[in-house]
Design goal:
This protein has 389 residues and is mainly α. The chain contains 13 helices and 3 strands. Helix content is 68%, strand content 4%.
Length: 389
């Protein structure tokens, strides 16, 4: 099978595996309710993948502005009590009866699309696209107000992946990275409950009955799983972990499937990450490379923070585990990500196949050397195509 086929197969396997774990986490109190809803999420995700896979990556340049405005308006409306639903002190969701929508999840994808389109138009060695960066900053600010610090971090990380894959000035990229780190550190330390989360991470056992309860219970559940685990549905400690079906589902995996299950899940996500960055390296244009790198970074950072938080290796940030945790908006965005990466991989393969074939047909006579080099590398006649346009 091709790389993009394997990418989808692994993503789908993780999603179906997530069905099992979500059911195990919720069956005692809710029966099959969460399993049915979660199965509908996976079905919608597969449909979203098929749609995204049919969209050529350059077409996102036309879609991105409208998509950005819709997401921006949604982030504003969700903060208004008449529209947004507050759960656990955070106003992040639209309650649409049988379903709920979390606009912040779509903001992650929007930021990467917006920046990728901007850097594709920039000349190599030019400065930062300040207008687009300001647009991303607005998304981050609105998500932060919900509050949702974890998603804000993922948006910044995905945007950083786009910029580092670009051909912009290195000095500007380093400056932007330093500013982003300072801003994120300020956002984390200035708010008391986020500061407590960070201090709790340093020594969760000292506050195991308070702010460290979730981390401690997660580590206890993982330790109880030992090497082989208690078996699916046989765990007991995992049900004591708050948010076990969403942010802390990896703790349940550790308890019920043990070290072997944890290693298998980490390996699956490792494959997704490596395959995504491989697609970015082989991308046929600057825009495709930046888009794939941003999406790969988004998946890698979100996965790392979720797994690390469950094991007490990083501070809690409230991030779901892609494909596995419960959440419809997250599921759709994750599958759209795989769809875009698959299309970039497919377009890259076509470009590499067409280049040598055209050269053999023309014989290379009378062609400038620079044009021949572009076509050998899967490029096209028009240099603008190398920037995604």
């Amino acid at each position: 099978m091709s790389l993009r086929t394997n990418l989808f197969v692994v993503a789908l396997a993780l999603a179906l595996f997530g069905n099992v774990m979500v059911y195990s986490a919720t069956a005692k109190d809710f029966g099959t309710h969460y399993l049915v809803v979660r199965s509908a999420h996976v079905a919608l995700g597969v449909v979203a993948f098929l749609v995204a896979k049919r969209v050529r990556y350059t077409s996102w340049r036309k879609i991105a502005p409208a998509f950005y405005l819709v997401v921006l308006a949604s982030l504003v409306l969700v903060l208004i009590p008449a529209f947004g639903t507050e759960v656990g002190g955070a106003r992040r969701w639209f309650d649409l009866g049988p379903v709920s929508v979390q606009p912040a999840e779509f903001a992650k994808l929007t930021a990467i699309l917006l920046l990728s389109c901007a850097v594709a138009r920039a000349r190599p060695g030019s400065g930062l696209p300040l207008r687009s960066i300001a647009g991303v900053g607005l998304l981050v600010g609105l998500v932060f107000l919900e509050p949702d610090f974890g998603t804000s971090v993922v948006i910044v990380a995905g945007s950083a992946g786009v910029l580092w894959a670009s051909e912009l000035r290195t000095g500007d990229l380093l400056l932007a990275g330093a500013v982003a780190l300072v801003v994120l550190a300020g956002m984390m330390l200035l708010e008391p409950y986020r500061r407590d989360r960070f201090l709790t991470f340093l020594d969760p056992w000292s506050v195991s009955d308070g702010s460290g309860y979730q981390i401690v219970q997660s580590m206890v559940a993982i330790k109880a799983g030992s090497f082989f685990g208690a078996g699916t549905g046989a765990g007991e400690g995992g049900v004591a972990v708050p948010e076990v079906q969403t942010d802390m589902i990896f703790a349940l995996i550790g308890e019920e499937l043990g070290l072997l299950g944890m290693v298998a899940v980490i390996g699956a996500f490792g494959f997704l990450t490596i395959a995504s960055f491989k697609i970015a390296l082989d991308a046929p244009s600057v825009m495709a490379r930046c888009l794939a790198a941003g999406l790969a970074t988004m998946l890698a950072i979100q996965t790392s923070f979720n797994l690390g938080a469950a094991m007490g290796a990083v501070p809690l940030a409230g991030m779901t585990l892609p494909f596995v945790s419960y959440g419809g908006s997250s599921m759709i965005v994750c599958f759209v990500t795989i769809g875009i990466l698959s299309r970039i991989s497919e377009d890259g393969e076509r470009a590499r196949e067409v280049g040598p074939r055209k050269k053999r047909t023309s014989g290379g006579k009378g062609r400038p050397a620079s044009l021949d080099r572009r076509r050998r590398n899967g490029g096209t006649r028009d240099p603008r195509a190398l920037r995604g346009g």
